[in-house]
Amino acid sequence: MKNVVQHLKVGQVIPTQTIISKQGVHSVESLPLGSCKVTENGHQWVFPLSEHDVVYGLGQSMRGMNKRGYVYESFCSDDPSHTPDKTALYGAHNFFVVIGERTWGLYTDLAGKISHDVGFSDRSSVKLDIEGENYDMYYFEGSYQWITSRFREMIGQSYVPPKWAFGYQQSRWSYENQDVVREIANTMQTYDIPCDAIYLDIDYMERFKDFSTSDTRFPDFETFVSDMRAKGIRLVPIIDAGVKIEAGYDVYEEGIEKGYFVQGEDGEPFVAAVWPGRVHFPDFLNAEARAWFGRKYHTLIDMGIEGFWNDMNEPAIFYSEAGLQSAIEYVSSKQDENLDIYSFFELKDRILGLSNADKDYKSMYHLMDGKRVNHFDVHNLYGYKMTQSAAEGMLAYNPEKRFLLLTRASHIGMAKYSGIWTGDNASWWEHLKLNLQMLPGLNMAGFVYSGADTGGFGSHCSAELLTRWIQLSIFTPLFRNHSAMGTRQQEPWAFDTETLKRVRHFIRLRYAMMPYHYTEYIHSVLDHTMLFSPLARDYDDLRVRGVEDQVLYGQSLMLAPVLEQNARGRYVYLPEPMLLWQVQSVETLSPDTMTLMPKGDHYIQVSLDEVPMFIRQNQLVPLCRPANQVDKLMLDDISLVGFVPSNASYTIWDDDGVHKNYRQRYVRVTVSKYEGQFNVHIETNVHELQTVTLYLMDEHGKVHCVKQTECDRKMTNDRLQDKC
Amino acid sequence: MKNVVQHLKVGQVIPTQTIISKQGVHSVESLPLGSCKVTENGHQWVFPLSEHDVVYGLGQSMRGMNKRGYVYESFCSDDPSHTPDKTALYGAHNFFVVIGERTWGLYTDLAGKISHDVGFSDRSSVKLDIEGENYDMYYFEGSYQWITSRFREMIGQSYVPPKWAFGYQQSRWSYENQDVVREIANTMQTYDIPCDAIYLDIDYMERFKDFSTSDTRFPDFETFVSDMRAKGIRLVPIIDAGVKIEAGYDVYEEGIEKGYFVQGEDGEPFVAAVWPGRVHFPDFLNAEARAWFGRKYHTLIDMGIEGFWNDMNEPAIFYSEAGLQSAIEYVSSKQDENLDIYSFFELKDRILGLSNADKDYKSMYHLMDGKRVNHFDVHNLYGYKMTQSAAEGMLAYNPEKRFLLLTRASHIGMAKYSGIWTGDNASWWEHLKLNLQMLPGLNMAGFVYSGADTGGFGSHCSAELLTRWIQLSIFTPLFRNHSAMGTRQQEPWAFDTETLKRVRHFIRLRYAMMPYHYTEYIHSVLDHTMLFSPLARDYDDLRVRGVEDQVLYGQSLMLAPVLEQNARGRYVYLPEPMLLWQVQSVETLSPDTMTLMPKGDHYIQVSLDEVPMFIRQNQLVPLCRPANQVDKLMLDDISLVGFVPSNASYTIWDDDGVHKNYRQRYVRVTVSKYEGQFNVHIETNVHELQTVTLYLMDEHGKVHCVKQTECDRKMTNDRLQDKC
């Protein structure tokens, strides 16, 4: 297979049936590409799809892993109702790969609106409608793995959070005061549930002012942060895009003084309303303003904060001052009229249409490299640049330290600065499935540190849904339980004792598997690989292209979580024999929970008590003893579970979790077979390593617990004891 | 198993832990029931659920067949966004059956609000919150089949439409004028697609006035109806609940004169607004008003109309006059204020909350048997009584003739008068699955003539979604393709030629299977059986209780349609061996399309070209030659496909399709086996019957085409020729 990256630059009127590269205009015959024509607003590209082609990518979007069959728009949108007909969510990720007769990928570099019609209008083509002419387009040809790696390399090394951010995180809009947060932390301790962070949603602020803390609800914030830290809990406050208009508020005053806010048509700061009421938006596209806002994070960092989540940065607009006045005037004018039904709908639409209106986005202006730029044309850069602002602020604070940084709005290129959560989902089983299906697309766009609001943000969660969701989320780098005001509480103890017990076991399993989670994460980032991947990356049969509810996770695992209400099991397709490991509790690593599953289709029973994992052939999965915080995890006593028909090797990589020198410590376990016996070779520079226990399934399904005396171990540090 | 029906009458304060029956108060020990306590608004009943109990029923509601895990409210609601968190749709169907250690059912007879919390707040109980004390409650114990039959018998024989209503029906909001409708009919002919009816949505009316027809868009309506009839097409006009307030409009004038409209607090007719703008609602709960409105249908029947759909009869209210004035005043009062964010949300909610407001429902009054009754307390009766009005109007017109009658809002007891469509769904794959899952619940509530808007009403449909949806809808009694204004067209020819070809084949299969559809329908109605049933009715293993995407259809078939985008097949669980019949075209009944499937789990390939059906053991499925209208179908040349390990029998029942004397004609086919040979015995009173062809699969999977010469046939009419 030939590997091709072609940079297609469009800068002129393009006749239909040609493609344009940096080298000029080519007829479509010269490259196996589609055609392009000029439209009213920009260009339309059309690429043919073959019968069995599947289309992966487009990051944060609705529908399945295979995007074929619908339309997706790149336009960062705050829309909390994630129904299957929505074309845009919070992120704009214009990269996709087609796997089929030809495997190719396409990235369109534009911060304005693009519509990807993936076999919807016409099942046999992908159609891009690009609003604008000033974009770059990159065409890739090669394997899916090669293309996704090259793309990830091109857009920059993905963000790595501190290691504690791989722990369990608890959130809700809103833990309304210090006492509530302390109570959450205490209850975690009472029930012995591992937890590394509690999030502070908007109510920690004084009147929703960024970088403020409420004197009444969160008094003496620094002490509070430090008290929580003493319990092993980091606090993660939210920062919103809009800056409250309030005389005397430093961020507002400075922004006005320096001209750092997004402007309206008239050159005055644009007035919108979000949580704080009327706000101005910092002009993150202006480098100076970006640096200024980034330094504001230092206020909270100085008080001991090590992580943030940037929200409302599409930017979300509840209404603009101009829009609201116009709507109220319209409604008032109808006061004495006998409204016909269409006038009523018009009236309703005037009010409903106030939020996130294109009209407002088109009235906003940035100062970018000294040039006045209309917001609408660069809309998708806004959240990106806010996040860059925060990241650079932290870098300025301490260039060696990793901070946790999450954002809601995102765009290609931003993944080097932060992770994302998948926005305001709901407690719907459909969104649990969506969570799984979205992961590979997010990874393709560079977002490796990501996860959904576990249990669902909106709507009411049931014990069963939380249980099943956690059975998935223990594998996602961001593992956060978050819910909205007004919905049923969904902390681990919010349901019944059975649920509490199960959830606790699953979270402990998360921590026990940290050597795997962390190793695979760092591998994905440094080597630009997919942490979560469709099966079609590694298996070439047509059948796997239809698999929409299973993913490969790291090098060793395939995941197939239960995604349906009242289900007591599920179907799974195995493209090769695997070890099915059904973990109920990490306290009991028993061969009884490990089953050899032949290639093919299976129905497997999965009770609420157990997490199913599939270990791939000749792969190992390392575990350590669980602890209640990531910092407390040790590599002194490790176990590995593996499926080893012939031989296998796994290198656990570790570091201090705080600084940026990754892969400082390692444990390399190599298993080979000789005359039916497993030989285990261990190499490490981890001084505390004492015990290694291996559960190795052979090709006959027999599990061998390989003890120390059977191992041929070679230690680089000569300290490993014979305790296995 | 004992069979119990217990009538529980509540009419006094009930101490917790007791149940009340007609015979008085019993302690909970005396019957294996739950407990009841008095609440602020009425009563709360709690019934325990066991670990493996499944809960079927509650008619038109979201989520799976097994309702366990969520809350369902009985309050007819016009809410077009059928997301998984919605607790109420258009129908209120307070009947459910628990299958488990004990199999029992419960029906609560109340037209006010009831909440069924089915294992949501507490996984191990069903909790009913009943607003009111004046209700009857019926407790059933026995098998699922017995309970559903007794309940159906109790609520009255379900509605039977004319036979043409089992044909394909085409609809859209709105085929805006006669020319468009004629074009639709002509295109059906051009492409040779069977079709029996075209629906007229609101635009056929003059200014949305019930029983009017637009002189400009639908001039000379009677001739138009008759022209269409000549093409084999019946027109089915919509009738809305609200009567336009317009001087000179007869329905309005008479209603005012006679006092037939729902009143407000002040005793004046209540003013709401729906499609026609300001309307009054006929007081269908007043017997005189009901009879008066019912007679209005005669206007259109006189012009040749034979079917209607009653809409907006929850009743849907866009706004009430009082509500709108109050909201506009509120908004106007904010004109010069600097709104804080909560005031903005309040303003938004005032406008959004105008539609279907409880406040309005609580301000409306009925005259029922001379008594003034608040609408809120009897809300769920409104659509029911409108439909009864229509049905009785038709009965008065011609007591012998069957009319097609559909309604959107519904309630238990209404099923004897009409069918229902499942309301304003969307072109979401999730709604295709919901369609399947809802069918058994609807049948339990008596709604046998029902179906969803095929292809989805709201949102945009893809060729693939329409194709898969039609693969299901060819089995539902109501088979109607309907879509909303502003969405992509979804007539069979609206996509590509491949889709057109497939859809045509599937619709022809629908017509070819009419002997089966009609026989099973009449059986379900006359014998109070489930036309669509969860597998758990007939199979007792725990596994089938988890099957949520397969249903039994009639006596012979199990259906397992493809419900997911881009799927090329699906999993299926067979509780016993079955014949998998994958029909591509009814023109070619080939043994090659028939496969013996053993009991157990299977992945089956299902291309877009084929409809999979599973024929159960020792069952037959009859077919006739397809035609383009139901009226043209003949029983001269019939085929049967069967899976006959030992013996089987099927009786096709038929009648003139117009009158109410069902089961006038029959063909009884009996297959027995002797020394490995099939013996076929045919008994019939159908004079035109000429040819019978049987495709019989034996227990080894071999398909025998049983020809005439091999048959031992005994004819009651001595006319069957040896042409097989």
Strand content of chain A: 25-35%
**Average residue pLDDT of chain A:** 92
Strand elements of chain A, count: 44
Largest interface: A-B, 68 and 68 residues
- Structural class call of chain A reads alpha+beta
Give the overall shape of chain A: globular
Instruction: Give the oligomer, counting copies of the same chain as homo and different chains as hetero.
Output: homodimer
Sheet with the most strands: spatial strand order of chain A: 27-26-24-20-16-15-14-29-28
Weakly predicted, low-confidence segments of chain A: 9-31, 709-724
Largest sheet of chain A: 9 strands, parallel
Approximate helicity band of chain A: 10-25%
- Cα separation of the termini of chain A: 46 Å
What does the radius of gyration of chain A come to? Answer: 26 Å
What is the number of helical segments of chain A per DSSP (H or I, 4+ residues)?
13
Q: Any overview of this molecule?
A:
Two copies of one chain form a homodimer. The longest helix of chain A has 17 residues, at 381-397. The model of chain A is unreliable at 9-31 and 709-724 (pLDDT under 50). In chain A, the strands form eleven sheets. The first copy, chain A, has a nine-stranded parallel sheet with strand order 27-26-24-20-16-15-14-29-28. Chain A contains 13 helices and 44 strands. Chain A is globular. Chain A is 23% helix and 28% strand. By secondary structure, chain A is an alpha+beta fold. At the A-B interface, helix 6, helix 7, helix 11, strand 33 and strand 36 of A face helix 7, helix 8, helix 12, strand 33 and strand 36 of B.
